[in-house]
Amino acid sequence: MANLSSPTTPVDPTDGDVASLDDAALLERLGDAARPIALEYFRGDLGVENKRAAEGGFDPVTLADRAIEARLREMLTVARPEDGVLGEEFGRADGPSGRFWVLDPIDGTRNFMSGLLNWGV
User: Fold this and answer.
1) Which of 40, 59, 86, 104 is positioned for an S-S bond with 52, CB 3.0–4.6 A?
2) Whole-structure pTM value
3) Residues 101, 74: contact at Cβ < 8 Å?
4) Which pLDDT score is estimated for 16?
């Protein structure tokens, strides 16, 4: 079940201290940054588009997906500028370190769209 509580302090994606975090702490910070964005859209105006409409398939993307991925990429640029990012919504950006962060902004988009609690970041 989703944790619908808000973080106790706002998360600034350009917060310089993210670069000093170890990977586990950074993952927690990324989740904290995604939470208020997801909740802003949850059970509201999602702006749903179908990424596979031209192919006759259905692969939904919401405004929340795009906003979350954009925020997480911004934070990773500060925290791990040498790493690459592979995101579901904005594709691949290589980095010289050879490491990649893989982002699925809303895992369970169909549940998210339906107002169900079985989704995550």
Assistant:
1) 59
2) 0.85
3) no
4) 57
